[in-house]
Amino acid sequence: MKVPPRLYIDQPLHSGQDIPLALEAAHYLTKVMRRRVGENVRLFNGKDGEWQSKIAQIERRQVVLGVENQLLQQIYCPDVELAFAPIKRSRQEFIVEKATELGVRNMQIINTEYTSQKPVRLERLQTISIEAAEQTERMDLPSIVQAGDLKDWLLEFPTDRTLVFCDESGTDTVPILPALQNHKSKSISILIGPEGGFSKQERDLIAQTSGALVVSLGPRILRSDTAVVAALSMVQAVHGDW
Amino acid sequence: MKVPPRLYIDQPLHSGQDIPLALEAAHYLTKVMRRRVGENVRLFNGKDGEWQSKIAQIERRQVVLGVENQLLQQIYCPDVELAFAPIKRSRQEFIVEKATELGVRNMQIINTEYTSQKPVRLERLQTISIEAAEQTERMDLPSIVQAGDLKDWLLEFPTDRTLVFCDESGTDTVPILPALQNHKSKSISILIGPEGGFSKQERDLIAQTSGALVVSLGPRILRSDTAVVAALSMVQAVHGDW
What is the CATH number of the domain that holds B143? Predict the structure, then answer.
């Protein structure tokens, strides 16, 4: 049995509606997935749950879906946020894909002293995130925002959240698992540095932030993208929806 | 202060020795890292710990290191093994990089019913693993072997090991964190399927294997490469060296 493809649609969803697809989605459905008129497609828009639709029309310039009934109620991922500094483009895209799969509710891209990368292409990151959300069967989309400088971000850090700081430099850290297990808050922000790490001043500021939990991810040095997946897995397992 | 670069050398290491570098390592050291004669380089060979060396000579066709003293005793990563089915090349290379960073002792590439990828290029994967070991500061190298068919691999699975099977299909699973915490063995093999998952027959065989722990990595569908990093992080945090 073929599992129906799953598409994100940026508009309200309700029964009886006809939805003409954008070119890329039409190409994906008919050329990559090779679906034909009458076959099922699942739809979600990030807020109205998952909907059944059927391919009503495939023509050279237009693929149209007919929306039928709601399949699943809307649910949202746990209140887990990821803050990271821009890194090499391919690894940054990887972070966005993985954070989406691992159920992050929002991503904050922050500038740090050792950030040396070019401006991020937010639209490209959003496209990657949408594709990952389609594949991973999540019903909400994570937001991705440029959040300015780390120092300002820390000053405005809400007092009711836990800030999980994965510190590669390794002094004054506790292993992440017991640290998370001894901590009750389920509203969690994970902060991951650039490849060059944080400056001494930045590290002090982070440690002084209310709710900061300075943790270690083991004895080996992890790349930023590895640290993201590792930390998110631990957080979802201990406080999230795993 | 510049941290000395770290190189894997495939030969015994002892004081007073001169080591001429292979072309690629020589290029990396002098062109990428821009090191000069007299600067320090750290060396490891997977079994003799980490050694201090100095660049003794840089000539057009030859870079030579002079080995000085041992810096660190040899240590080995925990007894964690990763078995995975071949997937798309870029994601497979990613798995090898990440598994090396996350301290896997050996990798077994297994064929499954739904495996459709071309033969793996073992040498290329070993090169990626060496680079990752250099970066992540681990002192041993993981082995990477082609381990044949899943069914034979399961028949020969040692009775004293735990087999952590991350089952995307989701019935009869327990969340990975409590499953690992309730299990005492620290000799662990993690089994990750291809993108298409395992067949019903394969899944039954896995579940019947002595020591099998059928676990879930949460409600979202993870790609194979994400599942590898997530499962390895959990195992290192609960039973490994984190």
Answer: 3.40.1280.10
